[in-house]
Amino acid sequence: MKGLGLFTLLGHPLFWFIWAVWLPQPYENLPLRIFTALTGLLLLSERISRDPTSKLSGAVFTGVLWFESPFLFSWMYLCNGGNQAWLASMAAMILAYYFATDWRLATIGIATGALVARVLFAFWGPDVAPITGELFWVNTMVLAFCISMGMLLSVSSANLRREHLANTLATMGIMAHELRTPLATMSLIGDALRGTATNTPDPMHVQLATRLHTLVRNMNHQIDSQIANARLMHLPGYTEAVSAADLVRETVTSYPFKSSRERDSVTLAVAQDFRFLGLQSLFKQVLDNLIKNALRSLAAASNASQPGDLVIGVESSGGRGRIFVTDKGMGVEPQMQTRIFEPFFSTYSGTGHGLGLAFCQQVIRNAHGTIRVRSEVGRGATFVIDLPALG
């Protein structure tokens, strides 16, 4: 983004010199070039370039790119009568614009940019000969070819990125599955220690065996989570009528809490049960992810969790059901609340892969439901799942 900002800031005065002084064209506009160059300062500002994936940065980037590419190039193309220099410039712009953004946005951007430029040209454009006859059709065919090629290449790139994502997720699933072999060995060692303690009572052996079995259980739970998350792009169809209350109770009962204090911090609040179309195993994984995140937030907020610090509730009204997970942890910063459901975005830098909440959202969307977060920094967070209830 900074590179584009620097190119915009320095490039447009340079292009004015090329087209106005060195290789003069019928039309050039220094004030317009200066204004366009100054838009590059927006992309160079720390607030915009610090986080290129934020909504503000995306909006500014899209606006600046649209103004200096499809609009400005279309305007200059019309004002120069569609001559060879600006036909080539338009062709290069189209291909670059498709490369720089999503093909759907690029198509809409080119269409709107050309339309706005044409309307303004009709009122304020210079008096130049219209583009007619053979020149019109030749230019049209060249630009249509560039648009079709740009669209094809952009769609192909999007499909390639999707394939890479699928391969990455599949690799994660395979690696997680392979970890079960050493865990099985650890479990056998724990059984052996426990058997030794039976023949020769030794508290240390019993304690070590218990810790090994707890560790194996926790790691197997994490492996199940990774394998489930790796199925993000290949979720099965939903065929079960799932009871929300049973789902919540089973998830909490089987969750591998690290301590009894952690388990005691969870409170169930089932006001009214409902049933929805889904898969028990997938939605159990959704709640597992939400509970894991809530416990992590609680651990970061205090040294010891208290009863009621994590509430999991079920309620139903007007043909819709709701499951909510509320914690009194650190909360989620406002600028992150719109991004936490994006794949590979994690609020825990270096400790998370950023797939858990993306998996949750996809599972819930496939059930025609929604998930959202309400949070204040330092006052905890509430994740709300809304689902259509079966009649």
UniProtKB/TrEMBL annotation:
InterPro entries: BphY/WalK/GraS-like, HATPase_C_sf, HATPase_dom, His_kinase_dom, HisK_dim/P_dom, HisK_dim/P_sf, Sig_transdc_His_kin-like_C. GO terms for biological process: osmosensory signaling via phosphorelay pathway. GO terms for molecular function: phosphorelay response regulator activity; phosphorelay sensor kinase activity; protein kinase activator activity. Its EC number is 2.7.13.3. The chain crosses the membrane at residues 58-78, 84-100, 105-124, 136-155. It holds the Pfam family HATPase_c. Residues 174-391 form the Histidine kinase domain. SMART domains: HATPase_c. The keyword NAD does not apply. It catalyses: ATP + protein L-histidine = ADP + protein N-phospho-L-histidine. Keywords: Kinase, Membrane, Phosphoprotein, Transferase, Transmembrane, Transmembrane helix. Signal peptide: none annotated. This is histidine kinase.
